[in-house]
Amino acid sequence: MPAGRHALAVLLLTALNAAARAGGPKPEPMFPFVLPWDDASANAPDVSGWLDRPAGKLGPVVARDGHLFTGTKRLRLVGVNLCFGANFPTHDDAAKVAARLAKFGVNCVRFHHMDMQPPPGGLLKADRRSSPRTSRAGRRPSRRRRGSGSSRRSRG
């Protein structure tokens, strides 16, 4: 459809929609739909029954025919992303968050930006250069020197 006809069709449909709404009944007022962060009660949005408990009971996750499986059951991942201080909740808050995530069927969590700050919001030491647990007695990991390129492998 040429651009002019397309614009005319959109304008006509918009006008018809506005005319239909003007004469019709007013929509019902909306009501608040609140999902408290610490609510793990069994109610309408609770899909925790879809999760296999305990995690891993069907075996490890494997890729087969382009899909993920645990045992013979196909696996669907429902994930969220936690950032910064959300990666380090208190013990009481962690139990509430885990229950809420399970309630909504979440079975995969990405812990993001947990290595950008010193504790309690991250894993870095106060010097912001190394993690509290390093492999060489607290020394900063060595970096590979970049030379003239002679040590690089050539792709061929």
Ranges with pLDDT <50 over ≥5 residues? none
Task: State the strand order across the main sheet.
Answer: 1-2-3
State the helical fraction.
10-25%
Secondary-structure-based class equals alpha+beta
Number of strands: 5
Strand content: 5-15%
- Total of helices: 2
Give the CA-based shape: extended
What's the Cα radius of gyration?
Answer: 27 Å
Mean pLDDT over all positions: 78
Protein described:
The protein has 156 residues and is α+β, with helices and mostly antiparallel strands. It is built from 2 helices and 5 strands, in the order H-E-E-E-E-H-E. Strand 2 (67-70) and strand 3 (73-74) form a beta hairpin. The two termini are 49 Å apart. The model has no long low-confidence stretch (mean pLDDT 78).
Features:
22% helix, alpha+beta, 3-stranded antiparallel sheet, 13% strand, 2 helices, two-stranded parallel sheet, 156 residues
Brief description of this entry?
This protein has 2 helices and 5 strands, in the order H-E-E-E-E-H-E. By secondary structure, the chain is α+β, with helices and mostly antiparallel strands.
Question: How is the topology of this model organized?
Answer:
Elements: H1 3-23, E1 61-64, E2 67-70, E3 73-74, E4 79-83, H2 91-103, E5 108-112
Parallel strand pairs: 4-5
Antiparallel strand pairs: 1-2, 2-3
